[in-house]
Design brief:
- The structure is a single chain.
- With 249 residues, this protein is mainly β.
- It has two domains: 137 residues, PK beta-barrel domain-like (M1 Pyruvate Kinase, Domain 3); 85 residues, no CATH class.
- Helices cover 12% and strands 33% of the residues.
- It contains three helices and 15 strands.
- The strands form four sheets. A seven-stranded mixed barrel has the order 1-10-9-13-12-11-15. Strands 5-6-7 form a three-stranded antiparallel β-sheet, covered by helices on one side.
- The radius of gyration is 17 Å and the shape is globular.
- It starts with a strand and ends with a strand.
Length: 249
């Protein structure tokens, strides 16, 4: 039986993750509060005056600033508390523009000095800023993670892959056979659209923010590709909870 092992959301794209137990998925939308915000840098082409979805290279991210991979986030009502092993915790309300400067100062300490500097906390209207041009929810397979860990010879934490829904009960890499199929998870339905090609963010240890595994080379060497997980589109709204059953339909 396939079940939900864990659920994650990432309220600020590239900056922090939060474990949750339940959420409501909405047809045609990203997971609620997932990539709701993104941090624009000073070389970005994102237009603040006409905001819309933009590619990930317009924002700060773990691929170019690995320390960001070690940020954790906790939501409490409308406030976010960010923690990192190298920084004091920081709490702010992202809807309060007067608190953005403090956040940008905090996160700037984690951006690599050779990379463009963060300048604004921004949103796209009516959707999360996922890496796909369509509003997606990412689905991961714990058996694939375990197989990859075995091949590399050391345990790999799920947080490296910044997925939304982690499943138990599958064969390793079985999720790659699901493209074009529909899965029921809890009371929601999702269509699997594509495999997720990985980037340099996965090379960083999510406990330290230091690069310690050449993940892309490892994936290529052992499997002939650099994909991990699949991106899905919610086709029927519903609630999903940890331990809920999942099945292809």
């Amino acid at each position: 039986m396939i079940t939900i092992a864990s659920l994650f959301r990432h309220p600020i794209k590239g900056v922090g993750r939060e474990t949750i137990l339940t959420t409501d998925l909405i047809k045609g939308k990203t997971m609620p509060h997932d990539r709701l915000w993104a941090v624009m840098h000073d070389s970005s082409k994102f237009d603040i005056n006409a905001p819309q979805w933009a590619r990930c290279n317009n924002f700060i991210r773990g691929a170019s600033s690995p320390k960001l991979q070690a940020v954790e986030l906790a939501m409490d009502g409308g406030t976010y508390t960010l923690t990192h092993p190298d920084c004091a915790p920081f709490t702010f309300d992202p809807t309060n523009i007067n608190q953005h400067a403090g956040f940008l100062d905090w996160v700037s300490k984690l951006v690599s000095k050779t990379r463009p500097k963060p300048v604004a906390l921004v949103q796209a209207p009516d959707r999360g800023m996922t890496d796909t041009s369509f509003a997606s929810v990412s689905i991961m397979n714990n058996a694939s993670l375990q197989d990859l860990s075995h091949k590399i010879g050391q345990p790999i934490l799920a947080a490296r892959f910044r997925g939304n829904i982690w499943l138990d009960g599958l064969a390793p890499w079985q999720e790659h056979d699901w493209i074009g199929k529909t899965i029921r998870i809890g009371t929601a339905k999702l269509k699997i659209r594509k495999r997720i090609e990985r980037c340099m963010a996965t090379t960083a240890n999510t406990e330290t923010g230091m690069r310690d595994i050449d993940m892309l080379d490892q994936l290529k060497a052992h499997y002939g590709h650099t994909d991990f997980g699949v991106a899905a589109e919610v086709t029927k709204s519903g609630t999903i909870n940890t331990n809920d059953k999942a099945e292809l339909i």
